[in-house]
Amino acid sequence: MKNINILIYGSSAREHAAALAISQSPLTDTLYTMRDFKIPDAKLFQPKGKNLKAIAQEAAGLGINLVIILDEKILCSGAADIFNKAGIAPIGVNKQFSQLEKSKLFCKKFMDKYGINNVPNLSDKSNLFPQVIKVNGFCKGDNCTNIVRSKFEKNNVINNIQDKEYFTEEYLEGSKIAIITYVCADNIIHFQPTADDESFTYCPVNLNANQKLKLNVYLCKLEYALKLENAGFNGFITSNLIWTENCWCVISYGISVKTAEITAVLNHLKNDFLDILITGSLPEYKSGLSATLPVKINKSEINKEITIPKRENINIYYQDIKFAGDTMLSSGEEIFILAANSENPSKDLNEFANLIKIDQKVIITNH
Question: Is the pLDDT of residue 185 over 80?
Fold first, then answer.
């Protein structure tokens, strides 16, 4: 393939991770990003359009022929379909299947139809505590999923939700993993699972033989369901699973990838990420273990100069940072995602994070 001009739509650390991986592919002709990630030869795309249709047309006018969309809210608004109509091949779930995250009812029907284990619902009158209250629709933040341990807590949560639709589910305990599935035409690819442990996210996850077997059973059901539903998109679905009662149970679906998960996977990946996305080739992995660690600061340290040491075998992905010339400034409370692949990545990341310096003087800038 020649002349693959790619736009990474979005500006967070997960887009930085994807952009950096794709910039290293020989298949990439020109890479456009919507934020300056300081990637050599990448071009900045700053659209003048105020809506997705106008933005897609601007992108097409630049010769962009592939867009990677990782933002769930944008996907729910039909971004993949809009770019596709503009003649740009999208990597991102279409509007129909964005309902796997946006609509609890759609998601439940999908899983029940294909015999996929999921969390049982509870009636509003149930006295089985703790319970989990989930807000229906696309939702981010602390009010989306609430664990309640009494009727009093439950009433408070429902009052705060106000007129939003919600569902009540059983509270399950067990080991949790996330697994990213990439749908590529007739090919469906599953990356190695990730799991959180304290501040770190790891890839791969140490599963016993029974857990691996049951995970394969689940993934076969998911593949079967997506093929029979004629999913009709190239994009990511993330399964959030919990091990309970000798099986994997779906807690929820994501219609993209979270930052911690994609950075852990990409740092463990051995072969060309863009080739996987375009051709559906199988992932190959490095030896060792990959881990990611978010670097957070206090509010008092926002708008301060950041100094990072020379790095070896550590990838840094920009989250809440900005540049004033060559000076790097903090612009929020989570400034970086660090990632490493080694025999002991958590030790490597902690040591590196401790070397990052935040200048205590306030930086005044017009940028």
Answer: no
